[in-house]
Amino acid sequence: MELIALLVDFILHVDKHLEAFVTSYGAWVYALLFLIIFVETGVVVMPFLPGDSLLFVVGAMCGVGLMSYPLTVALLLVAAVLGNQSNYAIGRHFGPRVFQWEDSRYFNKRAFDQAHAFYEKYGGITIVAARFMPFLRTFAPFVAGVARMTRSKFTFYDVTGGALWVGGIITAGYFFGSVTWVKAHLDKIIWAMIFIPGLLILFGAWKARRNAVRAAAGSR
């Protein structure tokens, strides 16, 4: 429970924690940020780390001169791309082993073929859009690996989505993070960056499930 409380406090007051870290350890903050972004995007069991809010706060710190804007964008883009590549490789390598594909009664060849076809056709937009969705950005590259999405196609959209995500949110923080109203309501902005995408995901899942139930009822 204490660990959870510390994590929640870090997420909600990431600006204060990072500023204190920069004051105490200086350039080591770049290594810490690289690790956080890599782990959030590259380890499928760590989807709860503060990606969006962290990038926004980092952009704000760049805006007031506490960190280098070009170095931060470049370094965290590399972390985000490598994280997705790691997650994709984990899914591609361990997915078939976990389900033991052809030798397992749990393997559904038709479902696998559908997943593969979906990622070949729509995987690009899925990988890019998932960058801006907490939790989904951790699982999307893993599922792409399990579904055997073509690596070259995955890499292209991985880099594209990473550039839009890292560059876009850090730049927003750079220009708007020092605005008085934003600073006064940063905790609410962080909550919004966490919950609004989450609600959109839940709504999308509910709508997809409702459509599937209707389709099943209509086919009877």
Notable features of this structure?
mainly alpha, globular, 10 helices, 0% strand
Model description:
With 220 residues, the chain is mostly helical. It has one domain. 81% of the residues lie in helices and 0% in strands. The protein has 10 helices and no strands. It has helices spanning 2-12, 14-25, 28-42, 51-63, 69-99, 109-130, 136-146, 151-176, 180-184, 186-218. The chain starts with a helix and ends with a helix. The relative contact order is 0.14. The model has no long low-confidence stretch (mean pLDDT 75).
Give a concise summary.
By secondary structure, the protein is mainly α. The chain has helices at residues 2-12, 14-25, 28-42, 51-63, 69-99, 109-130, 136-146, 151-176, 180-184, 186-218. The mean pLDDT is 75.
Mean pLDDT: 75
Order of helices and strands: HHHHHHHHHH
- In this structure, how is the largest beta sheet organized? none
CA(first)-CA(last) distance:
49 Å
- Low-pLDDT windows of residues: none
Number of helices: 10
Strand content: under 5%
Estimated helix fraction: over 70%
Tell me the radius of gyration.
Answer: 19 Å
According to DSSP, the number of beta strands is 0
Structural class: mainly alpha
Q: What is the total domain count?
A: 1
What does the overall shape look like? globular
